[in-house]
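Renewal narrative, Specific Aim 1. Our central claim is that a sequence can be written position by position from structural information alone. The example that follows is taken directly from our test logs and has not been curated for this report. It begins with the structure tokens describing the chain, in the order in which they were read.
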């Protein structure tokens, strides 16, 4: 560490006119070994050839497995992996601009799925910053992800309420909450930065952000289909986060069970006579089975 630069940074930090961002350095240990029982979470990210979860190909897979306790504190990093994968199709210039990866970078590479499955064999919980994208993609490649419980740090942490940050961009959250920057959009870099972000204390209670994600994951989930909703309600449904199910021709959205009654009342008040509730298994959240 350059003590002169650190002294300058500390002086700037002490001023109300400056904020200092430090380059992120991955950790292998977050807290001293826990006396209580710990569990394992796989924090995961993919880089792909596109945004269509049914067709895009993985070009990079990154994940790390971390011990955590029931309050959301992290302990030892048990594994950190990053794999490149040559797709059958091309890598577009747009994807290269975002990820920095070219066809030449991934040529001849493949993901050793047997090794991945061995790493995740006794892991029951996966987390991604956009699980609704990453989960359907990785499930197409390996069944090991199907029976896991998944959490999403975009959808299941109220960053505005807990940390007064309106954006859910991972880079922005790292800047505002963690006061660090990193080389984003490479899979393991994103994973390690997300792990650090989730370890940071937020809210008046100063508990790790991961604590609040665990709370959200523990709440039961249901898929609500706005069957019979009038056509003129479509814009309001879209604003409330509903997605159009093309095959069934219905607007639908996943809700925590403690929000269902209020939402059902709203639908009935807005002339939707036959809303349908489908109880989701804990292992189906953010999967194609919850669409």
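The sequence written for that structure reads:
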């Amino acid at each position: 560490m350059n003590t002169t630069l650190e002294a300058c940074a500390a002086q700037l930090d002490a001023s109300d006119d400056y904020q200092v961002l430090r380059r992120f350095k991955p950790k292998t240990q977050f807290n001293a070994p826990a006396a209580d029982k710990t569990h394992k979470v796989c924090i995961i990210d993919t880089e792909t050839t596109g945004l269509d979860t049914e067709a895009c190909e993985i070009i990079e897979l990154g994940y790390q497995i971390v011990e955590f306790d029931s309050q959301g504190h992290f302990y030892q990093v048990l594994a950190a992996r990053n794999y490149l994968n040559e797709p059958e199709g091309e890598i577009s210039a747009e994807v290269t601009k975002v990820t920095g990866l070219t066809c030449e970078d991934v040529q001849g590479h493949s993901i050793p799925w047997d090794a991945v499955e061995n790493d995740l064999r006794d892991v029951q919980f996966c987390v991604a910053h956009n699980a609704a994208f990453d989960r359907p993609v990785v499930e197409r490649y390996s069944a090991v992800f199907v029976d896991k419980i998944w959490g999403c740090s975009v959808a299941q942490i109220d960053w505005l309420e807990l940390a007064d940050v309106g954006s859910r961009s991972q880079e922005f959250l790292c800047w505002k909450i963690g006061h660090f920057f990193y080389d984003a959009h490479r899979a393991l870099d994103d994973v390690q930065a997300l792990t650090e972000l989730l370890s940071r204390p937020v809210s008046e209670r100063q508990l790790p952000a991961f604590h609040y994600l665990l709370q959200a994951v523990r709440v039961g989930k249901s898929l609500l289909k706005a069957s019979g909703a009038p056509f003129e309600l479509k814009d309001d449904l879209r604003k409330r986060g509903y997605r159009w199910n093309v095959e069934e021709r219905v607007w639908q959205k996943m809700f925590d069970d403690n929000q269902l009654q209020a939402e059902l009342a709203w639908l009935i008040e807005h002339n939707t006579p036959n809303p349908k509730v489908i109880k989701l298994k804990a292992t189906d959240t953010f999967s194609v089975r919850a669409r």
